[in-house]
């Protein structure tokens, strides 16, 4: 019998040198492959997106975007498993468009991350079009407000907001039947034996691509609107804290405030510019402090960071802002949730009281809840494909 196959649509080439973002797609591709599936990635670039290594405008074939995607896929043994279109598919690299469409036609499904793929011919070829939501709340509220419908043209709907559809969750369902899932991690690719530096870290964007949303007389904000509550954290513990922080110069006031309170700031374009640097940065951290977007916290969406799952897989304890996690994952050892500044301080003290125990438990949590073979097997079963 032929092997099952999945086509994953998402933006690797659009965001070169963002190692953590790349890992989202690598874990899906490599996770399905580990389960015995054939895999293929569909990516695209629009005019004006192509840049060289310095960020200057570039041709498609000479772009850093194409070079980055090609290198990543080759080094993870996925060299014949991707197609990149440019300028409305006038230019194509990797597997030719016709062959990519045939792979879509033979697949069990297209997993369309945030509705990234909008090519009608490709989507029409898919036997099952699955919308994969990794930013719960934004798309749902846009649709309810009549601003934009990301979900149109899809057959099934999956979200990493594990509380969506449950009582107490503020993310609207839009009348859709949501399947919830964790994001997968291929735990074999993360080394829990690397000696860590004595710092708590995270790799974050201060604002991200979406702006705040006004919905039903409430404002749902971004990470910046939560992080400001936790600026004094380094001053209240004896630990070191470092952020690989993507922040706009317009937010220089926040950068100054972070440094004044004891946060060290490093450039993610240096320490996390590709999957290997990102993995090294995570593995050499003592633990992670994860501050979520206000949207995730206020809606109690049950969102959990793909980045934090990587920290757990690397045996690094995670201190995570609570988004309604208790019903979805084991908390208390290796992974501790907090709601306010005092709670974060207490969680760090717990970890420092027995770091080795929390480190071992972090890896166990990753293997039990986030291992790709666990997460994707359950997802395939719930989708009824494969």
Account of the 3D structure:
The chain is of the alpha/beta class. The protein is built from 14 helices and 16 strands. The protein has helices at about 20-35, 65-75, 95-105, 120-125, 140-145, 225, 250-260, 270, 275-285, 295-300, 305-315, 340-355, 355-370, 370-385; strands at about 5-10, 40-45, 80-85, 90-95, 110-115, 130-135, 155-160, 180, 200-205, 215, 220, 240-245, 265, 285-290, 320, 335-340. It has an eight-stranded mixed β-sheet with strand order 4-3-2-1-5-6-7-8, with helices on both faces. Helix 11 packs across helix 13. The termini are close together. The model has no long low-confidence stretch (mean pLDDT about 95).
What characteristics describe this protein?
Rossmann fold; 6-stranded parallel β-sheet; 34% helix; alpha/beta; 19% strand; 16 strands
Please render the helix and strand layout as text:
Blueprint: E1 5-9, H1 19-34, E2 38-45, H2 64-75, E3 82-86, E4 91-94, H3 97-106, E5 109-113, H4 120-125, E6 129-133, H5 138-144, E7 156-159, E8 178-180, E9 199-205, E10 213-215, E11 218-220, H6 223-227, E12 240-246, H7 252-260, E13 263-266, H8 268-271, H9 275-283, E14 287-290, H10 294-299, H11 306-313, E15 318-321, E16 335-338, H12 341-353, H13 355-370, H14 372-383
Parallel strand pairs: 1-2, 1-5, 2-3, 5-6, 6-7, 7-8, 9-12, 9-14, 12-13, 14-15, 15-16
Antiparallel strand pairs: 3-4, 10-11
